[in-house]
Amino acid sequence: MRQGMEARELIGERRKLHSRLRERASEWGVVVESVRETPSSLIAFGRRDATAVVLKLVKHEGDEWFSGEVVEAFAGQGVVRVYQHTGGALLLERLSPGHSLVETVQAGEDEAATEIIAGVVAAMAPSAIPERCVTVTEWGESFERNLAMTDEGIARLLLLRAQQTFADLARSQSKPRLLHGDLQHSNVLFDYDRGWIAIDPKGVVGELAYELGAVFRNPQEERRLFTDAGTIERRVRQLTVALHVDATRVLGWAFAQAVLSAVWDWEDGGLAETRAPTLLLAQTLDTMLHPS
Fold this sequence. Notes:
This protein has two domains: 2-94, Phosphorylase Kinase, domain 1; 98-289, CATH 3.90.1200.10. α4 (110-123) runs parallel beside α11 and α12 runs antiparallel to α13 (277-289). The chain is α+β, with helices and mostly antiparallel strands. It has helices at residues 2-27, 67-74, 101-106, 110-123, 136-139, 142-148, 156-171, 208-211, 213-216, 223-226, 229-243, 247-267, 277-289; strands at 31-37, 41-48, 51-58, 82-86, 89-93, 97-100, 134-135, 177-179, 188-191, 195-198, 204-206. Strands 1-2-3-5-4 form a five-stranded antiparallel beta sheet, with helices on both faces. It has a three-stranded antiparallel beta sheet with strand order 6-9-10. Strands 7-11-8 form a three-stranded mixed beta sheet.
């Protein structure tokens, strides 16, 4: 009985989502050519007059609901352009061919991929900070929630050390600005006209060194690579030289974020296993920061 009700609810939600898509396509003059679905969004590829566009609908209200404001704040500087947006919907430029940096890494060119990410970070020049943006300090509150759980999801000692590192770095930030918040390989796509461009910014306010944390736990398709100490050291050298940021702060943020990422996975129902790749990365970074 319950399964039948859940199935009907799911069908109802999908109908509403596709109805929203038709409404937005009509309002914004988009001819939809194809549609694909992700866990969080419905993404339609099509055209508005002669322009290739992407119409993205966010499924549920939450962190991404007003992401159009974040994209707009970057004004196309290193980030995909947004033509129109409203709550839960964005009309974006379509990047062609649109392959990601994951493919570059899988081709054995991680060094080149890291240089490309550094270039994208350097190009991102936000013109403003949207009112709804959270801060990295607010993101760090997840540590407290996990520590309060009686059924621990992550080793307590590692969690406490990451929480302290995160708090120390957050208190001592310099020049906080609007950041992408999830700048990793699958969110950097190639366009014939514009080169490498970031997509799907979450939008968070923090210092530049924070932005680099996601690089170290990606791409998820190449987990053996990003848990390798030699790869970590080389990536740190490349990013700090290219962007003139402090290596110790980059390592610290990467460590704290790796644990925080595992915390979020655990909160979402994922398994935060001791040998999970993000935690293996965290342990390696912890050793680099605190050699015995």
